[in-house]
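Example record

The entry below shows one chain as it appears in the dataset: sequence first, then structure tokens.
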Amino acid sequence: MNRLFCFGLGYTALTLARRLIAEGWSIAGTTRTADKRARLAAAGIEVHPFDRDRPLAHAAAALEGTTHLLTSIPPDEAGDAVLDHHLAELRACATLQWVGYLGTTGVYGDRGGAWVDESAPVTPSMPRTRRRAAAEDRWRRSGLPVHVFRLAGIYGPGRNALDAVRAGTVRRIVKPGQVFGRVHVDDIVQVLRASIARPDPGAIYNVADDEPAPPQ
């Protein structure tokens, strides 16, 4: 049986997990909060607590049988917590066929509106995106079958401008000429599933809608 383990059962990972559960996959992963652990367990997901200060308990057992791994936990100032705590166990996981790292197009830095593709140099300009670039590089050099997905701004059900309008939290930022790349969560899931179907370790994919748009 295929088994997906997600470090970080957040918005995108859960969208993928729900699709795969419907196809008979076994799903496991991590979260930081007890209330979320209970909700996910009720949905049939095996859940483990994890964060920088709380590594996986019995990591080898938790990862046993994992065929596919997805990580969406951003690095902190100390580095990538997953690699810092569990690289040895991941390397020892003999069943592991595919690893997906969810990163950000922010690693390209400010290009003044110019287009980039996967061959463009990584030139992060902020501390947060420099940490992202360093973590991405560590994953690619980990010896694992890693695929990097550089995501634009994510939107979808429950996470979009219309929901913000309804909640009264929307902010309208108008700056002539400024545009942003975005991507629908369903499109991210489609890309991840296509990669799972045809693994290509070492590959990098920019995942974004066809046309950037201004925030308003």
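Notes for this example: The helical segments are 11-21, 34-42, 59-63, 81-91, 127-140, 161-167, 185-197. The first strand starts at residue 3 and ends at 7.
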